[in-house]
Amino acid sequence: MQFYNLTYGERIMIIRTRAGLTKKELAEMTGTTADVISKMEKGMPNPDNNILANIAFVLNVTSNLIMFGFDDPNKNQPLTGLINKSATV
């Protein structure tokens, strides 16, 4: 499975189920409701960054893994290079 090809909601659902948590349990642990977790797993637009950060913390993953499907800091190097080059120009 290519994790980066999934939506952020699908990634949350997979990580949550692998952790053995229900939507209600994850909601309680992150200070939100099961309805919000459900909407996020369905790909709700403009998710709350605080809730995403709490979900990542509770599930012991990075926010990058949830939002973009990868944890590898090397994947960010081309973008970092572009930012650094434009800053010096």
Commentary on this structure:
Helices cover 62% and strands 0% of the residues. The protein contains 6 helices and no strands. It has helices at residues 8-18, 23-30, 34-41, 49-58, 63-68, 77-88. The longest helix is centred in the last third of the chain and has 12 residues, at 77-88. The N and C termini lie far apart (41 Å).
Tag the structure with descriptive keywords:
disordered C terminus; 89 residues; mainly alpha
List the helices and strands and how they pair.
Elements: H1 8-18, H2 23-30, H3 34-41, H4 49-58, H5 63-68, H6 77-88
Helix pairs in contact: 2-3
**Beta-strand fraction estimate:** under 5%
> Helix and strand succession?
HHHHHH
* Main sheet makeup: none
Taking pLDDT < 50 over at least 5 consecutive residues as the criterion, the unreliable ranges are: 77-89
Distance between the termini: 41 Å
How many helices? The count is 6
- Counting helices, strands and paired strands, the structural category is mainly alpha
Helix content: 55-70%
Overall geometric form = globular
Arithmetic mean pLDDT? 83
The radius of gyration is: 15 Å
In short:
The protein has 89 residues and is an all-alpha fold.
